[in-house]
Amino acid sequence: METLDQIKSRIEGAFPGAALQIIPNESAAQQPSLVVDNASAFAVARWLRDDPALRLDYCSNVSGVDWLPAETTTKTKVKKLVNGVEQEVEEVTKTARPGYLEAVYHLYSMSLKHGPVILRLRTLDRAEQNQVPSLTPLWRGAEFQEREIYDLFGIRFDGHPDLRRILMWDGFVDHPMRKDYVEPDDYDYEPTPHDEVLEKAQKHQGTEVSA
Amino acid sequence: MSELLEAPAAGSVTAAPRNYEILPKPTDDGEVGGDLLEVAMGPHHPSTHGVFRMDVVLDGEQVVKLKPVFGYLHRNHEKIAENTTYLASMPYTDRLDYLCSMTNNWAYALSVERLTGLQPPERAEYIRVITAELTRLVNHTCLVGFLLQDMGALGTPLMYAFREREIILDLFESLTGSRMMCNYMRFGGCRVDLPVGWLDQARSALDGYEEFLETFQKFLTENEILVARSQGIGVLPPELAISASITGPMLRASGVNYDLRKVDKYGIYDRFDFRVPLGDHGDVYDRYMIRVLEMQESVKILRQALRDIPGGPIVDPKAKIRGFRPKAGEAYGRIECPKGELGFYLISDGSPNPYRYRVRPPSLINLTVLEDMCLGQTVADAVIILGSVDIVLGEVDR
Questions:
Q1: Which of B41-55, B67-81, B198-212 has the lowest average pLDDT?
Q2: Are A176 and B74 in contact (CB under 8 A)?
Q3: CATH number corresponding to B77-397
Q4: Cα gap A98→A37, rounded to integer Å
Q5: Are the C-beta atoms of residues A118 and A106 closer than 8 Å to each other?
Q6: What pLDDT does B298 receive?
Q7: B residues 252-311 near A, CB within 8 Å?
């Protein structure tokens, strides 16, 4: 298979507007990944699936990652006049990185038996602008996994056919896989269908049913 | 993209109210004829193999809509693993798919090895293959037993299957100290070496197993009832199977040749001579048959591995138990577990705990096409279609 750099330059040829970035991977696995901007993500993903040399027809794994806001410090050596003498001084600059949520797609090819190409989609922030485009229309296999990420991380997948909670119960409000999630002291338990049935029975009988 | 606007805000209540009433059935000319019945199958239903619910809408006996509902066994395994050290989640992986703890261990160990670059020694690789293939035998035997139970053959085939499974679980117990929760693999090797005489026990167990497989086959494969109940039921076309990320025996029953033991050649699977059985109808019968044939191939692999296993150390000398901190980076490792592709995605930030720990559960993802397979079939067939998917709720819900 081509390297990710080659794939990236081919995507840039096909989609001049796409903003791509390669995230290197220092671990022994040597699996670098590709960040795609949300506007062109769907088109790029479809191209990856349909390109005859890649044919990434199999979306193996979709996982959410929560990145909290962080501060990165960079040290640069600057020449400065200190007490009239020129000295080399380390200058520390701090840049705040806003937090974001990430959906990571591991794509393989079943027909050509190669992979993975790792695709990362990022939300703008962790609160209101938590959308990324859904890739379920391209790979059905992402359906339950995107629902799970919506449930546990709170990423909204635009264009997902059935975006509901999957593991937590329907009335649950928070997203437990987020790094800043605090477990409540006591849960509101899941309402059972039994309550609805009781209510209907009450209406039907027209009399009070004491619990 | 009109759903886009209707997608609810994060944190809001999203459920449509569930309706347990009888719905009027629409007809072509707009008149109401007959009724549709909505049934909640499960969570406490023996055919669902655990706490799992299918909300089924029925037209007479035919399924017209089916939505699987999960989460009854959810304990947020991933979050728990992110709050503890790498090694401390190893015993917890046993509890994912509790029939196949050895392969769960291997998938996790493999991912951490990908992350850190540890290399298990020769003997450990052989032990891993042996235990994993024994696990495959256990899983597939149980599945065939359960599938027949779902078809109405109450008791007998399942008890035969469990009797044989117990022989292999005895082997696991003498090796690891536990029948099912083995907790056996370690990063860069295995926990303990084989006890004296274990290989001979395994060989004789294998002889018995081959005999059992033959008998099982003779009784079942051409059995009229099995054939009538399962052929042409729950057909899954290969294009849909690929698009829906179906893996394992289910994918191969639809005729797609994709077995990670051949594709990735993880461990030492390139040294063994075995074949990948493929179906060509993609129905329940094919899924049953693929499992039977896979068991025969597993026996072949086991024979070769038990013959060739060398002596030597069982853990990579570079592996550390204390102060285990992989350097920052990420890795995705996957193996062919009996139910499909089991993957672990790990992100390390250089601390003793994984920053992100994700399990790619084959059981959950194989359920994606449950509705597609069940539509137009009867309720009784929905039960065996679910049985042929082979799920374990410990892994579906995590």
A1: B41-55
A2: no
A3: 1.10.645.10
A4: 16
A5: yes
A6: 92
A7: 256, 258, 263
